[in-house]
Amino acid sequence: MSKGYFITLEGPEGAGKTTAAVEIKRELEALGYDVMLTREPGGIKIAEKIREVILDPSHTEMDSRTEALLYAAARRQHLAEKVRPALEAGRVVLCDRFIDSSLAYQGHARGLGIDEVWSINQFAIESMMPDCTLYFDITPADGLKRIEQNAGREVNRLDLEGMAFHEKVYEGYQLVQARFSERIQRIDAAQTLEKVTEDAISVLTDHFKKSGFQ
Ligand SMILES: Nc1ncnc2c1ncn2[C@@H]1O[C@H](COP(=O)(O)OP(=O)(O)OP(=O)(O)O)[C@@H](O)[C@H]1O
Ligand SMILES: Cc1cn([C@H]2C[C@H](O)[C@@H](COP(=O)(O)O)O2)c(=O)[nH]c1=O
């Protein structure tokens, strides 16, 4: 039984999750919480290696089911090695992407089926779901525009997919959000970073209060 609080950040490419995560961590720490920021795929050595395999732009031959299984494998190791111990120690875990990315990208956009991808992930997560998920809502066009303007960012294999794929990811997130409407809270990610952070903190402190987490 975890004593901590598990928060995930979700959304399409360029929504601002990684940038906002640093601010959210800082604000929560200022409120006295012990926060561990991590990411998927990655966060620990084995999962970072799996990330390299998945996202290498030269791996164009990768089968969609292989892709889904690799994300689930990285997730399992990350949960077992880093997330679960932090939660057991009573920490707030802030994770940049988690299972909802698999449901939107592999389940819907790749066409594997949200139920099928949910099902393969059950073996990996053993029912360990986030307490709260912030969904950073931005249109694919606006998100990709932000990425194009960020000259230093490395381009990965999924970034290279066409607009039709990114539209499907967006659609996938709408379906996932509707399915898990209690857990997933929408944040308007088109706002300034300051406003996005303020909204995120307001949602999270509200959740902490409701669940009695201190
Ligand atoms: N609220 C914001 N307003 C304008 N630009 C922003 C905002 N938040 C982030 N950005 C910029 O948008 C770009 C993408 O941000 P970031 O890497 O945080 O997004 P992301 O959701 O983590 O993307 P990905 O999932 O594709 O890695 C960066 O150049 C960042 O500086
Ligand atoms: C966890 C997860 C991620 N993805 C995709 C989403 C992005 O295109 C990359 C990760 O890159 P980021 O810069 O760290 O956002 O991987 C996915 O398709 N399925 C997943 O489960």
TrEMBL record:
Pfam families: Thymidylate_kin. Keywords: ATP-binding, Kinase, Nucleotide biosynthesis, Nucleotide-binding, Transferase. Coiled coil: none annotated. It comes from the Bacteria. GO terms for cellular component: cytosol. InterPro entries: P-loop_NTPase, Thymidylate_kin-like_dom, Thymidylate_kin_CS, Thymidylate_kinase. Signal peptide: none annotated. NCBIfam families: DTMP_kinase. Phosphorylation of dTMP to form dTDP in both de novo and salvage pathways of dTTP synthesis. This is Thymidylate kinase. It comes from Jeotgalibacillus alimentarius.
